[in-house]
Amino acid sequence: MGEAGARSTGFDQQSRGDRVRVAILGQAHWSHHLVRLLTRHAADRVDVVALPGSSAATLLLRREPTPGVLLRVGFRPGAPTARGVAFDVLWSRIRSSFPGATGVYYWLGTDLLRATLDAAAGRLRGGFQASFRDRHLATAPWHLGELEAIGIRAAYRPLPYSLPTESASPMPVQFGVLSYLPARSFAYYGGNEVFALARRFPTLPFRILGADSPPADAPRNVEYPGHLPSTDAIFKASSVVLRLLPHDGVGGTVLEALAHARHVIYTFPLPHTNLVQAGDTEAISGILERLLDEHQRGLLGTNEEGRRYVLEAFDERRLSRALADELVACAASTGASV
Hints:
The protein is built from 13 helices and 12 strands. By secondary structure, it is of the alpha/beta class.
């Protein structure tokens, strides 16, 4: 199904058999992303529609066909913000209007971080306690403990993600570093550390995705290629990818880097990456120095183990079908209509 089909605002009225109708509500980008992949790989199991943000209210007007699962993506329950309170009210009305539907929360990363901060500050509202009756899924294994710490038991279900599967390119002739630093979250994504490293290694190109132009204080060896129709070429031109967040799901740039058989320095324990603590510039610098030395001696090969791992563990078809099966099981456990 193409992008237009993936953004349909209604269920397949002909949905029959054991397919479960799933309404995906919450964060727009990831709602449409999930519709696209679930439709591509698991249309025999689920009939999905994205109704992000306030468009979820159309469920209250349409009523039919009835969803078997209400999948809430990226919008944390009990948020004290005006938008959070409004969405919790809307969610509560939808849940009351479809008592046979199973409510499922899919935690992405930032939503969990904010919920944890709200819990620590005593800011969580009533919608948070109400979420305990629903199912919860986490996109990263290290999120399970964080969720449990705020009273939520969840299952790990990786987010399906489209990855390049063609043969990996050889390592580039020139050693290069790549990172993703969105302009609005520069410091949070480790921008200060990346720029400090660029100053320590002034002969190396540091390429930055996520913003169109560099800040005024960017080192001279930092390059911003701007918006790219495809990121394949820039991954192929890089030797190592840095992802240096203090809190993260399983980062997409990390998965892409591994799929391209590149080396990765990451602040979370993903196999076949180099694990560091967020903010530990000395440790990151030491790993870069080692990789650069191997490159200069002609010993730095592609990260084939990382590539094999990610293409197996994060295969988009397998993960899409696993998520669909989870949603079918959630619906069946409460007798939700299919």
